[in-house]
Each structure stands twice: as structure tokens, then as C-alpha cells.
Amino acid sequence: MTKKLHIKTWGCQMNVYDSSRMADVVAPLGYAPSETAEGADLVIFNTCHIREKASEKLFSELGRLKPMQQDKAAKGERMIVAVAGCVAQAEGAEIQRRAPYVDMVFGPQTYHQLPEMIARVTRQSGGVLNTEFPPDSKFDALPQQRNGDVSAFLSIQEGCDKFCTFCVVPYTRGAEYSRGVAAIIAEAEVLAANGAREITVLGQNVNAFHGEGPDGAVWGLGRLLRRLADIPNIKRLRYTTSHPRDMDDDLIAAHRDVPQLMPFLHLPVQSGADAVLDAMNRKHTSDDYRRIIDKLRAARPDIALSSDFIVGFPGETDADHAATMRLVRDIGFASAFSFKYSRRPGTPAAAMVQQVPETVQDARLQELQALLRAQQEAFNQSLVGKTIPVLFDGVARNDSGRHEGRQMHGRAPFMQSTYIAAPAAAPERLIGHELAVTITQARQSSLIGELAQAG
Ligand code: 5AD
Ligand code: SF4
Prior knowledge:
Bound molecules: 5'-deoxyadenosine, iron/sulfur cluster
């Protein structure tokens, strides 16, 4: 009998990837994914701890689950409730104390042991807490990915040794670890055989990748991308998320040499002020960042850039904030994420004395976001009238109400969602194909166009 599995995911691509792998791990036990928690046999909350109020959100979601779990128990059935991810890692004991009806709490390094944990929960009463960093790698124990998506994620690296002073990742995800090249290539080949045309390799610090190659040498990310580009049918490659310190020359050269590597890079800078970068322990200056961007643009002139920013880091002055604004103006970003600094207990920055008042943080965030929004709009507008390759991945949900009839969804090289009117006959045939689209209209974060060639 199939059992209902509901997974709710917060946070980064890594968590999205982890969630789909958890679904793969429990599939052989008869669990099939369900959109809702109602009546589910297993509910997993895959949590993120990186900013604001993660644990409050979790406890309110758990509270909503409790009556559903009791309803099921009244019918003599069981709803297993699990909390996974970085909040689980950081606050495992607290979760078990405040929500004792949670059956399993486990960190990001242990989800390959899910079948075992489920067995333990079903056999005995009392919960399971599994937030070790086990000696066996989950990557060696996971089944092959099964999804048939056009655009697939592949995790190649995990953890972080950088210890930026604001960030919990080194504590929740553990030390930097790279998978071996042979296993990565094998997984990429399976993905391609199942229909993937675009692969995004993932890691908290993906460009710190240093996996063991089949030749016994240590491979960097540049070399890995060149090898992945040799796999038949892989038309597009991307990687995320990177650190400026690890943008080595070979990786930059890959942007010049590997046509499959898309002209888009998310490269977090956090701040444009050297004093703040120093206090953040970023180990690079604002000029280092500018130089990297210059090299990237020399290697791949059409590359579009994205970044992460934190405003209101402890000690940030008006002049520091102005330096961030200047950096943004100088570089020009196609998209970006920006956040107010949020104090994470246990990180060095949480103990810094000069915390910036929230009203100041708010004002700086607004100013920065207005500029970033304007740059994004201008970038999207600059594509109107141009013909660009779009990789189609599905028939769009028509939720905007702005369009008549069905639409096809795809991605531009620069990551924007791109929509065209679906051809009348068998629009699904476009899925998995990269076709030339002439952009007719730009929106804040998406594009609208029409096929420039017969579909
Ligand atoms: N406060 C605000 N933003 C943060 N980020 C990470 N930790 C914090 C924090 N404590 C942001 C950084 C990072 C992105 C994933 O989240 O900008 O690049
Ligand atoms: Fe966090 Fe810094 Fe590591 Fe990124 S590089 S995961 S921001 S510690």
C-alpha cells in the first residue's frame, strides 16, 4: 500500500535538493509525495536556520500538525512527524522538549539513515534524535536520483570552513566536504539519461570543490565543469553558491572555454566596505571583488551577475553603506538578494557590541533594494527585442491572469523565467529543447517572448 509523504522545505537550493533526495530514500518503503500534510503518514519539515525567526515558524507549523496527527491516531493510524535540516541540527533538543509529538529530529548529514530512523520510530515509542556528523558519507549511501526534470540539481560539495562571523552554516552543515568525481559523473549521466538538459551543481561553497578525480589527482570546479560538459545531451551547466575567495583562474577560464556554462553567476559579496568585510571575516576586499568581476567579464563578456548583501552588520556606518551602494552602481547586477543582518546565536557577530538599530537597517535595506530593483528592471528591459536561447521545462501555470490561453515556461541563459504562448498542437514537445525566443516584454523578474523559429 502506498503511504503519503509530505515534505515542506524552507531555505536554499541545497535544502530543495536534500528534500528530493529524502523522497528518493523513502520511496522504496512505499512513500509517495503529497502536496498536503492532511492525512499524511510521514511529514518532514526541512528547515533553514540562516536568517530570522526560523524556529518560530517551525513551531507554528508543528502546532498546526498536531491535531492532524491526533485525528490519525484516533483512526488507529500513525502520522510520523520529522524535523530535518539546519534548525534540527542547531536546536534538536529544544524541538524535542517543546514539541514532544515530533518523532524524529535529524540534521543534514544523516538523512540517508531515514529508513532506519523510521523503523526505530515505528517499533518503539519515544523519539529519535540524530544530529551527529557520521563517519560514513550520506552520498555513498543514497540511491540514484530518480527525477525526470529538464533542469536538475546535483550536490557536489557540502559544508563550509570559511566561518563568516554572521553565518551558522559552518556549525549546522559541518566541515567542507567534496564528493568524488566518478560518483558525480555517474549521477550526471543518469540525470541526462532521464531527460535532464541543464545541471546545476550545488554546494554551500561550491567553488571550493576539490574532489578526487579518477586519475587520483584533486580536481577543482573548473575541471569538473569541463568534464560534465562532455556528457551528451547536457546543454547547460550552472553552479551555486560561490565564494569570491575560490574564484580561481581555471574556473574563470571555464567561463570562456565551456559554451555550456551559462553566462550567469551568483557571487555573494555581502558588503562594499572593507571594514565591514573584515569584520565579517570574508577574507577579501571590495577591490578584490571588482577585480574578479573584471576577469569574469573579460572571459565571458555577456555574463550577468547576481549577489547577496547584508545591511546593518554590527559596526556598519553610513559611509560603509555608501560604499556598498557604490559597489552596486559600479558593477551592475542582473538580480540580487539583500537582507537585514540578523543575529544568529553562537556566531561571533552576535556578540559584537555595535549592533545597528533596526530603523537604520530598514532604511538602508530600502535604499539598496530600490537600486537593485532598478538594475534588475533595466537588465531585463535590455533584452527586449533580442533573440536568446530558452530551455523549455514545462507548461506554465496560468496564475498571472495577464495571459489568454496556455503558456510554455522556460529559462533564459540569465535565469529569468521566460514565457511564450503555447503552440496549439502538442506544446509538450518543446519541453527539454533549447529554442531561440525573441523577447517582446520584460517584467520585474521574468520575460515574455515568442519563438523565433518553428517550434
Ligand atoms: N543575517 C542576514 N543575512 C545572512 N545571510 C547569512 N547569514 C545571515 C545573517 N545572520 C545571508 C548572506 C548569505 C545568504 C545565503 O544569506 O547574504 O550569502
Ligand atoms: Fe556562511 Fe560564509 Fe560559509 Fe557562505 S562562506 S556558508 S556565508 S560561512
